[in-house]
Amino acid sequence: MNKLIHLLRLGISYEIMHDIILSYPPFQYTIEPTNACNLACTFCPQSNPAHVSIRPKGYLKPGNFLQFLNKVKEVQPGNRNLNLTLDGEPFVNPHFLELVKIAIENKFFPIFGTNGVLLNKEKANELIAIGPFRASIDFASDEIIFETIRGKKGDFGVVRENLLNLMILAKSNSNIHIDIHDITSFSGADPALSLARMRQLFPQKLPSRIRFYSRKFHNFCGHLNYERSKFKYRLCPYPWTQMAVTYSGDCVACCRDTAARSVFGNVFQSSLMTIWNNEAYQQFRQNLLLQCPDLNAACKECDLPRSGHESRWNPIYVAHSLLGR
After folding, report:
1. Is it the case that residue 59 has pLDDT exceeding 80?
2. How far is CA 106 from CA 66, 70, 118, in A?
3. Are 246 and 86 a contacting pair, CB within 8 Å?
4. DSSP secondary structure code for residue 281 in this structure
């Protein structure tokens, strides 16, 4: 399906018709390499000691991944980007580089989030030899803050060294796309000032494929002591735009449903369109249309439906976000 046609049909169903049965396949796909992680960041559900008991730890197998990709190709999606992150750290999966290779061989563009600790020179060289990718990596402007909320003693230096290595490689290799997110604001620091300070830790002349952002934190699992805002209700776009899948094949509500609170079926056992339009998915969409997100297990504590003041709802931001995926 042509990308623009796909987006047009999506926009009509989501914004105008408010369909609960969709005539098009998901626009964006997320599949989880693993729910295991080498860190327990303060701002992440992984920091909850009970988090490991919610879902058994496991790893996406290359054979299952290929099965999933074949099903995605069957529905002829307009978008070939593929997000290889949900819960956990991708590089903890011993087969992660093989998963990236399989994605590229099947003409998908792999995107993944990583804490950067395991992305050393050896892994980086293996990764860029496979093909193009986009990595989203968190960092900070302050070593003490970073190692308090993100990693452990010494991780600030490890991640900075790994980032510098990637930047050097990116100057001569167009396969490398990196989004670096400043997480210092979680400690209460001014986001703009902190981002500027973090940027100074790296070379000033870098390829445009390396971008810097300030991380916006969300309470998607109720793991943060954030009071739910009273801002205007906004219809969450995820059930109309993306399909998120755990390492075991369970289709969950969205990329924020790391605890798999709402499961609609298993992609290793059913076709994608069967799951995409089954009764559970329809009811999930209907609850959001009725402005009753609390009826959906995955939405009860999420802050997105009441985030109407955020720039994410700006039409220009929405268009740029979708066209860039």
Report:
1. yes
2. 9, 9, 26
3. yes
4. H
| Residues 264/275, Cβ–Cβ less than 8 Å | yes
Q: Which residue has the tokens 């089954």?
A: 278
Note the pLDDT of residue 29: 97
Rounded distance, CA 144 to CA 40, Å? 16
H or E segment to which residue 177 belongs: strand 176-182
pLDDT per residue over 71-115, tens digit each?
Answer: 999 999 889 999 999 999 999 999 999 999 999 999 999 999 999
Phi, psi (deg, nearest 5) at residue 138? -85, 140
What's the rounded Cα separation, in Å, for the pair 98 and 115? 19
Helices (H), 113-247: 121-130, 143-149, 155-170, 191-199, 238-241
Judge if pTM exceeds 0.90. Answer: yes
Task: Give the relative orientation of helices 121-130 and 96-105 as an angle to the nearest 10 degrees.
Answer: 20
DSSP bridge pairs for 34: 59
What number of other Cβ atoms are within 10 A of residue 100's Cβ? Answer: 23
Q: Are 209 and 172 in contact (CB under 8 A)?
A: no
Return d(Cα 152, Cα 131) in angstroms, integer: 31
Average pLDDT over the chain reads 91
Cα torsion 16, 21, 24, 25 to 10°: value is 130
Helix (H, G, I), strand (E, B) or coil at 214: strand
Task: Identify the bridge partners of residue 324 per DSSP, sorted by sequence position.
Answer: none
- Among 88, 75, 89, residue whose Cα is nearest residue 25: 75
Place of tokens 């220009």: 316
Most confident region among 42-46, 48-52, 127-131 by mean pLDDT: 127-131
CA angle 299, 69, 55 (to 5 degrees): 40
Residue 140 tokens read as 């900070």
